[in-house]
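can u do me a favor
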């Protein structure tokens, strides 16, 4: 059972194959044992900066689609964390590697990157908060699982900073908060037996598609 809530554990189990491909991808294993080429890591970070711009927009949309103050609070905290912490982290790492802010901001967006974020935004534009959260969850919780596992299994310190960021108690708390938001949003809109409703399988399908898009994102990272 996951620490990130009941619905997340159910959605992940319904998307087992893609979930494994995502959380055990060759890119992730290269972070774990330090064999990931630096050029691939920096290429990934630059694309991820662009990714985070659109992800922040998607979380801002979650504020718009909220129905309670508690939902607005959880979504706006994530927007704030993304813009003031995670994006800052990327700017800092890139600067330390000789990539200026101007260069970073001018990064051309790769199609795999564009496909993922616009898929998430479209889930939110055309649906409600549940559709949006089902598309957002793999990104948040997947990195939480990867960070926790790599902390225990890393055999190299090369990518230790990256691993530490996602295994930190702050990040793990954020994953738990999103898990609680997902559970409570489902119960509010579909009832406690949300698994028996017709919408549940569609939400699981959205979660699976977003997971597949995460796999493609790692794959893109391996091909600078
Ligand atoms: C491709 C890609 N997928 C997931 C994350 C992780 N992530 C994205 S937004 C966010 C903050 C909480 O919502 C976190 C941790 C990433 N950086 N890049």
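np, heres the sequence
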């Amino acid at each position: 059972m996951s620490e990130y809530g009941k619905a997340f554990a159910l959605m992940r189990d319904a998307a087992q194959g893609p979930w494994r491909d995502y959380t055990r991808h060759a890119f992730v294993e290269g972070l774990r044992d330090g064999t990931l080429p630096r050029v691939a890591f920096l290429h990934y970070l630059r694309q991820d900066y662009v990714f985070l711009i659109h992800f922040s927009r998607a979380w801002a949309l979650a504020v718009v689609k909220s129905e309670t103050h508690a939902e607005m609070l959880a979504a706006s905290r994530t927007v704030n964390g993304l813009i003031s912490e995670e994006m800052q982290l990327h700017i800092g790492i890139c600067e330390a590697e000789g990539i200026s802010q101007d260069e970073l901001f001018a990064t051309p967006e790769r199609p795999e990157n564009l496909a993922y974020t616009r898929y998430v935004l479209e889930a939110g534009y055309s649906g409600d908060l549940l559709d949006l959260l089902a598309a957002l969850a793999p990104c948040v919780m997947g990195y939480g699982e990867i960070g926790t596992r790599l902390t225990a299994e890393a055999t190299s310190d090369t990518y230790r900073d990256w691993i530490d960021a996602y295994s930190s108690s702050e990040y793990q708390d954020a994953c738990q908060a999103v898990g609680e938001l997902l559970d409570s949003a489902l119960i509010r809109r579909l009832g406690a037996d949300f698994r028996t409703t017709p919408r549940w399988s569609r939400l699981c399908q959205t979660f699976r598609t977003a997971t597949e898009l995460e796999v493609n994102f790692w794959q893109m990272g391996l091909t600078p």
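Residues 48, 51, 55, 78, 82, 86, 139-140, 143, 174, 214, 217 surround VIB (CB under 6 Å). hope that helps!!
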